[in-house]
Amino acid sequence: MKRILAVLTAFVIILGTVATANIYTVSAADDSVTNLLSALGVMENDEVTGNFWNNTPVKRYEIARILYNLYGFNGTVGESRKFTDVSDKDRLYVETIVEYGLMNGYDDGSFGPEDYITNDQLVKVFVDIIGGKELADVLGGFPKGYREAGRKLHMYSNLNGSGDDAASRINVANLIYDALHMDMVKIKSFSSNDVTSYFTERGCNFLSEQLDIVIIEDVVKKIDSTAYNKTEGASDGRI
User: In what order do the strands lie in the sheet containing 3-7?
Assistant: First the structure.
């Protein structure tokens, strides 16, 4: 049974998941972004200080963990290691994400877990996630084609800094939040293996396709219990 994200007049709730403010408006200072990601178990505030540490750059192993949690993977690792430079505690996250094609290692066979992920690399991850890889390839591939595809899909509207800059935590949070609700890219036609036309399918997004959450506009007449940003997190049967 699908969970439902209800967009209300005064506030927004996700039936079976979590509450948030205006789901279509994002700003770097908007707690609804960090609260939603925290409740989904994707990114958390600092347990000691309560800070989100907006401007702290994010490393590649951290992005692997974030993506693993975003997709809700529950994998295992084999006996042979894929990357010798990845620690045991991060191996599950990194190898699973690479297996699913969400990130890649370097040409020398390493993953570079301690390297900071750049804004360009971050945009590439999420362009691919919402189905824009073919569009980006036609526009020139990485990084130029992905930059252009990212602009066409409005992925840069909430990113600070240049494409070569290390992605900050707030950039990561804002892009994830946006990508959760971005309509999936659908290729309409090809010509000589080039994309000549594409469109975005309204209502078909990461929420509906991966998290089984659908968006409706309605009025809640009765609620049973609430879980916003508590230890229970986002769980079925909670509003």
Answer: 19-20, 12-15, 3-7, 213-217
| Distance between CA atoms of residues 80 and 86, nearest Å | 12
Q: Quick check: helix, strand or coil at residue 34? A: helix
Structure tokens at 87: 């620690």
User: In 3D, which of 124, 130, 125 has the Cα closest to residue 147?
Assistant: 124
Neighbours of 149 (CB within 10 A): 26
Burial code (b: 16+ CB inside 10 Å, e: under 16) for 71-96 equals beeeeeeeeeeebebbeeebbbbbbb
Residue 181 has pLDDT above 60, yes or no: yes
Cis peptide before 143 (omega within 30 of 0): yes
Are the CB atoms for 88 and 123 separated by under 8 Å?
Answer: no
Nearest residue to 29 via CA among 167, 180, 174: 174
Residues 6+ away with beta carbon under 8 Å from 159: 119, 122, 123, 167, 171, 174, 175
| Structure tokens belonging to residue 98 | 């690479």
For the entire predicted model, the pTM comes to: 0.73
Distance CA 3, CA 44 (A): 23
Which helix (H) or strand (E) element contains residue 197?
strand 194-205
pLDDT digits (tens, 9 = 90+) for 16-62: 333 333 333 333 346 778 888 887 889 988 888 888 889 999 999 99
Give the single-character DSSP code of 167. Answer: P
